[in-house]
Amino acid sequence: xxxxxxxxxxxxxxxxxxxxxxxxxxxxxxxxxxxxxxxxxxxxxxxxxxxxxxxxxxxxxxxxxxxxxxxxxxxxxxxxxxxxxxxxxxxxxxxxxxxxxxxxxxxxxxxxxxxxxxxxxxxxxxxxxxxxxxxxxxxxxxxxxxxxxxxxxxxx
Length: 156
Hints:
The chain has helices at residues 2-25, 87-98, 136-154, and strands at residues 42-47, 56-62, 67-73, 79-83, 106-107, 117-121, 124-128. By secondary structure, it is of the alpha+beta class.
């Protein structure tokens, strides 16, 4: 009977440990929606934290005027920065964004340990995790925005 007690106690501890691991691996969506940094004529890109060292920031790209970068965690620049982006680059991003199909607005919401990325324009929000089952046009747009942040914010 003592063996049965040890096995039950071991199983309980194993299950409890597994629960803690799964809770710890859940993506931390601590980022908040931008407040005064957006308007109807801006594309906002938000990338949230993950369990590891994923960059967490907001990038607001108006059709005209300077972009706004808000670094939150695991980025070279923490805080609020205003960034001049070439109009050609802005127009290219807007053209790609407006070609997207907005029928599906959420992709892979249950994936763990991957940052949630959001694209917001007017009343449309596209939310993704990972790259599985995501239209290639959307992946290309996100890469274009991330490359723009790298070029104009981190490498200036």
